[in-house]
Amino acid sequence: MHNRLGNHLLNRRNLLALGGLTGAAALLPPGRDGRHGPRPRRLAHVPAFSVEMPLPPVARPVQVRPDADVYQVRIKPARVEIVPGLLTPVLSFGGGFVGPTFQVRTGRRVIVKYHNDLDRAANVHLHGGHVPSVSDGHPMDVIDPGRFRVYDYPNTQQGTTLWYHDHSHHTEARNVYAGLHGFYVIEDPAEAKYGLPRGRYDVPIMIRDALIGQDGELIYDVPDTRTTLLANGRPQPYFRVAARKYRFRLLNGTTHRLFRLRLEGDLPLIQIGSDGGLLPAPQRMRELLISSGERADVVVDFSRFKPGDQVMMHDTSGTVLRFDVVRRARDHSRVPDVLRPLPDLPEATVTRDVVFNLDLTTPKWRYLMNEQEFDPARVDFQVRRGATEIWRIHNADVERGGINHTFHLHLEQFRVLDRDGEPPWPTDLGRKDTIYVPPGASARIKVRFTEHLGRYVYHCHFLDHSSLGMMAQLQIVP
């Protein structure tokens, strides 16, 4: 189940297909020169635990109306410190490498006006958002340079951890890698009764990777070469904690990677939520698998530690961050045995198949869903509003050791019914919008399409794949 795509992308033409999609070479130089082959590169020295993990700033509305909170965000280039002592050119929401966190409330409408100050088109997709099609951030609905777009988010869904990122077709992978990503947290008053950690003890953490040159530049290259792990935009940072329970909202913000997270000292990760909100019951685990685009809310209890103790969070490829216990604290929070039950879904009336596959027979590989590359003029599935459907997701890429894929559906959360006929994984047990599907494996999901009409997409959320065509379109009709 490990990601082996990097073993295959050393084919020169396919490496250039991943690295040469836009005019962003000045910002994110490719790892190879078309005339001279491999280009020697000097990478930055990245010291571990030399900086504190920051918290992204909280977005503040520019207007509070009776019916909505109104925000303005500029999409602009910036220079930020990722590696200590170096400034890195990035693309940003509002000037930071991790955009401002929207803290919104269930049932309270939000309007965001995004101004594009870049020299290229961009857009914004609210990943996991239940929103009208005009505000979804469809890959073809871009904001041209010098223009703006207004997104209207009704926030009719339950409390959950969402995120927003660029989704402009053919450039989404580069733009997200360059920094166009941030948290969108829906807070739900109905969850106060559970007594979970809150306030300063409720912490969003975006985990991702990077390849950073000695001058600080972000290098866009084969994903498996991105060896620097970042937490909220800083390399292997430390984070000061009290000896009590914390809720960590974990997001895999990579464009192409799996993380298998674990804590030192046999300390469990207690998962309480996934993409669509709280689970029916907490899941206690020693290792958490989280793929590109997925979120997992976990509670970690540091109460058994004393000030001065340190706890590492590791991935199989290295250490992600270090928790430094610095004080004792009273803790009235808890993790109840029962959380938020899943709603009943009607019986499905339609079954569909979605197959990921790469065509490796051509010099430049073709990234396909159901044997077709993405075409915005083509509707792949026409769905009736109000319908409940079962989708069978299959990863057919088993040649040459297998290639990983993740499935992401816009608009609606779904329920995982089974994997290869076996029960869902513990991480599948809540509302989902993104799941990892290993090579040769299948998963069945059940989804109900509710009130919204229009066009949406579904795709592999390894954005390096969707940018090359591994995406399809559905149209929801009355």
UniProtKB/TrEMBL annotation:
Organism the protein comes from: Spongiactinospora gelatinilytica
Which of UniProt's keywords are assigned here? Metal-binding, Oxidoreductase
| Protein's name according to its UniProt entry | Multicopper oxidase CueO
Q: Which domain of life is it from?
A: Bacteria
Q: Where is the Plastocyanin-like domain?
A: 82-190, 241-313, 362-476
**Matching Gene3D superfamilies, A to Z?**
Cupredoxins - blue copper proteins
Q: Does the keyword Transport apply?
A: no
SUPFAM superfamilies tied to this protein? Cupredoxins
Give me the reactions it catalyses.
4 Cu(+) + O2 + 4 H(+) = 4 Cu(2+) + 2 H2O
E.C. numbers: 1.16.3.4
